[in-house]
Amino acid sequence: MKRATSRRERQSTFGEAALASISLDRADREPLHRQLASELKRLILAQAIAPGARLPSSRIYAEELGVSRATVVAAVDELIAEGYAEGRHGSGVFVAPDLPDHVLRAAQQVTPVAEATLPRPDEVRPFQPAAPELALFPHEIWAKLMLKTWRNPVRELLASPDPLGWAPLRLAIADHLRAFRGMRCAPEQVVITSGAGEALELLGQSILKRGDKIIIEEPGYILIRRTFTELGFKTAPIPVDGDGLDITKGPKDARAAVVTPARHYPLGMTMPLSRRLALLDWARQHKTWIIEDDYDSEYRYHGKPLPALMGVDEAGVVISLGSFSKTMLPGLRIGYLVVPHNLIADISAVMRERGARVSLFLQPVLADFMRLGHYAVHIRRMRRLYTKRQLVLREAIDRHAKGVLATSPEPAGMHLICTLENGMDDREAAKRAARIGLLAPALSDFFAGKPFRQGLLLGYAGFDEAVIDASIKKLADALR
Amino acid sequence: MKRATSRRERQSTFGEAALASISLDRADREPLHRQLASELKRLILAQAIAPGARLPSSRIYAEELGVSRATVVAAVDELIAEGYAEGRHGSGVFVAPDLPDHVLRAAQQVTPVAEATLPRPDEVRPFQPAAPELALFPHEIWAKLMLKTWRNPVRELLASPDPLGWAPLRLAIADHLRAFRGMRCAPEQVVITSGAGEALELLGQSILKRGDKIIIEEPGYILIRRTFTELGFKTAPIPVDGDGLDITKGPKDARAAVVTPARHYPLGMTMPLSRRLALLDWARQHKTWIIEDDYDSEYRYHGKPLPALMGVDEAGVVISLGSFSKTMLPGLRIGYLVVPHNLIADISAVMRERGARVSLFLQPVLADFMRLGHYAVHIRRMRRLYTKRQLVLREAIDRHAKGVLATSPEPAGMHLICTLENGMDDREAAKRAARIGLLAPALSDFFAGKPFRQGLLLGYAGFDEAVIDASIKKLADALR
In chain A, which residue's Cα lies nearest the Cα of B350? Predict the structure, then answer.
């Protein structure tokens, strides 16, 4: 890892950027060299050219601005004469490091650029759930694919992007879902989004009407409830049992249900076949929709996964959501929506109305990454690593947190739910964890209503063995 | 420009991707080699491993799956015995190019991946307005910056992205706006978005309430009206005159006004100082908001631009929108919102609720591209090019379209408005243009109500001289 560029390095290159903002008017009665001198003074005053910065050579000015070198020399002479700049023998002209008093007074009225005022992004802290291992991502391969794609882009990459996504990526995702999730979807069913938030918005603008009632799982993923509420829908949280959501307990007038059948979020159980068939029946009979959030099904460590609900949907009532933020890197922000054939036209119309939102620049790179097998290899590698890390977390709890935390093995996922054996309230426990720099969300915070179960979510995927062990020791001490 | 990868090349590498989807269960009573053989058959049937593809070596299988090579050899032997695969002396094992009948029957039930069913993205057609020149973008520099940033990313790039955007990009944009637009904004006022659509949504979720009335320009940018309507706002289109929007003609109960003071879209006039001051007064007195869409102000060819409205706003009532889609490439989909200091907290809260949507992967690359001066140089280069192309368009109209089209020079922008000298309805003219493969939007389509002016929008920025000349000749013939 290298360090971010220093402020000094940034400033030294500013001259050229500022150059492009200079505007000269040949029709003006003021001579060009005076106009140029005024413009340069303006930029120096605004600190768009920093004190001490080297000015571009007169040849570059002349070329960029389309004026003679004599004009540039005359303008720069004026700057030097008035103390804005100074010539250093043999090495060019520099903005004066100490500007004269009258210049300084003017400059002080300009708001300085406050680099230090911007907060640094949060570091990933143990035990952030859903944080993948970052250091083992094949950055070199990924960066080279970027270079290969964009140094000489194919024509189609330069046109206005298709709001539904880059066709080869839609194809690669369809292939992936067929191999990994038993979903025989065609690429035209795949729509590229920035993630679950945008996907829910799209559904809110196409298949659902404002005020519709939507069944969600209780507990469940907070972003889903929040997004639907923001969009003007009513959410109906239905408590899950050991088999996940029981659709027969939901309100009769709901228009859709959002479910995590592969692995309930955050509790982790898999929905058995009987419940799945009941869900499909419900949607078919009531002409409602099932929104399947297939959020981390790539990480299954033992046993065969049931195919995605969408894989057994004959009636075209299931819509599936997926994302790459957990299998690749959190900053990627590329997700997808798989819609049944009968919905393609509606979703396409909405996407075209909204206009393309996901940058085209990463889509061909991701398509190549998948097509060339790098994605599948990376998932397999992470699967092995995370299997081990889950074991390390469980052993660390046994070793350091007896009587404080308890948990049991999970065949899949990136986090474990730990119960608080000493009866501490989970929100209090989460607060204590935060106080010592750890992130251990309280299960209570995943409930819309009164929580019927407590615990802490401990993510293990993104942290190495030593960190997991040491952090559990710290956490156990904090919770005693 | 190179061609996209062929289907053949894609298939030949599928084996490894499919490999990662294989799931073996050591607790199962079925021997591992039988499980492996079944899984491989499943993948061959699903065409996840294509007919004729080479299977990975037994060493790779053994390593990836954590089984002995003997297990792999036994499984592959079963595949060969049943006709799914064949060994070629010395070069490994391949999926049978012609599968046995019973296998074929099963395979035919699998929906084939329909690559050809996905439409190609639309080519850029003359005279698409707002289409920049694509071939002269410094692709090599851009691609190398991508490589440099991502082959060994700094730690901060791997953390959860800040929903407000990558700090160095916010800083680079603040610097750019100061140099180019006289907007002395601090980087914390800059919020990264995917473009105008998302920016308007954000404002709709923060400063405005559902049902609020918003003044828009008539004619104006269609996406603005559409987005606000979709979000549940009322839009009040106010006809512009030669000086742009006159805020005194707007309804008294409006909560915000969206304006293009630098250069009205699509008519092109600049709002004079008196109107700007009236706007600022209005917002200050009524505690309303001005949303300044500064959509292409980098492209000014003659005269000094007035600074952005936000540059003279002392009361904190102006919000400014900008984008890189017109100055760089349309597929980039990175824009920004500059908010006054008093709004930073509200917008931050909404952004954090929504979660990060813009990929982090391009933000540091764009920040470097700007910081190192490439962006400013590119804009300056395009400015010279577009100056010339506007002239070429006007000369082509003089040469080929006398009595059909008329236009006058513009000091800025990427398109000209042409009047139809033969009195043809502009929508009819746009239809005729479309029929011969040209894109010349009718001015009438930019009106919410009855159009009070007609004409065609002809973009010139993205097309070379020969194309402009030939296309005007074709267009004039079609309109006669």
Answer: A230
3-state class (DSSP) for residue B374: helix
Give chain B's largest Cα–Cα span.
87
Q: Would you say how long chain B is, in residues?
A: 480
Per residue in B21-52, pLDDT (tens digit) is 676 777 666 678 877 887 777 677 656 677 77
Closest CA to B454 of B466, B443, B441: B443
Q: Which residues, listed in sequence order, are joined to residue B190 by a DSSP beta bridge?
A: B338
Within 13 Å and on the Cβ side, how many CA atoms surround A105? 2
Strand ranges (DSSP E) for A260-402? 289-293, 318-323, 335-338
d(CA A50, CA A209): 54
Max avg pLDDT among A223-237, B74-88, B142-156, B452-466: B452-466
Homologous superfamily, domain A377-479 = Aspartate Aminotransferase, domain 1 (3.90.1150.10)
CB contact under 8 A, B380 and A20: yes
The CA-atom distances, in angstroms, between A9 and each of A53, A54, B165, B287, B368 are 10, 12, 22, 42, 11
Distance CA A185, CA A169 (A): 14
pLDDT band at residue B71 using 50, 70 and 90 as cut-offs: confident
In tens, the pLDDT along B278-313 reads: 999 999 999 999 999 988 778 888 877 677 888 888
Examine residue A266 and say whether the peptide bond preceding it is cis (omega within 30 degrees of 0). Answer: yes
Domain topology for B145-373: Aspartate Aminotransferase; domain 2 (3.40.640)
Q: Residue B120: phi, psi to the nearest 5?
A: -70, 145
| Chain B interface includes A117 (CB < 8 A) | yes
Give ∠ CA A272-A179-A297 in degrees, rounded to 5: 45
Three-state DSSP at A236 gives: strand
Q: Does A23 touch chain B (CB under 8 A)?
A: yes
Q: What is the fold, at CATH topology level, of the domain defined by A152-372?
A: Aspartate Aminotransferase; domain 2 (3.40.640)
Query: Taking CB atoms and an 8 Å limit, are B117 and A174 in contact across chains?
Result: no
| Residue A425 CB neighbour total at 10 angstroms | 13
- Please report the residues numbered 131 through 150 in chain B whose beta carbons come closer than 8 angstroms to any beta carbon of chain A: 131, 134-135, 139-140, 142-144, 146-147, 149-150
What number is the average pLDDT over the span B235-243?
96
CA-wise closest residue to B129 among B473, B466, B410: B410
Run of H or E residues at B64:
helix B58-65
The domain defined by B7-117 carries CATH number 2.40.50.100: no
Give the C-alpha separation, B276 to B257, whole Å.
12
Domain coordinates in residue numbering, chain A: 7-117, 152-372, 377-479
CB atoms within 10 A of CB B139: 17
Grouped pLDDT means (10 residues each) for chain A, 480 residues: 41 55 69 79 68 78 80 82 74 74 43 48 83 92 93 87 93 90 88 92 90 96 89 94 96 96 93 92 96 87 80 90 90 94 92 88 95 91 95 97 95 95 96 96 96 97 96 96
ipTM confidence: 0.76
DSSP assigned state of A215 = E
pLDDT at residue A230 in the model: 84
Q: Is B19 on the interface with A (CB under 8 A)?
A: yes
Q: Which two structure tokens, joined as six digits, stand for B31?
A: 């021997």
Do B133 and B385 contact (CB within 8 A), yes or no?
Answer: yes
Q: What is the C-alpha to C-alpha distance for residues A440 and A420, in angstroms, rounded to an integer?
A: 12
CA distance B469 to B474: 9
Instruction: For B119, list phi and psi in degrees, rounded to 5.
Output: -70, 150
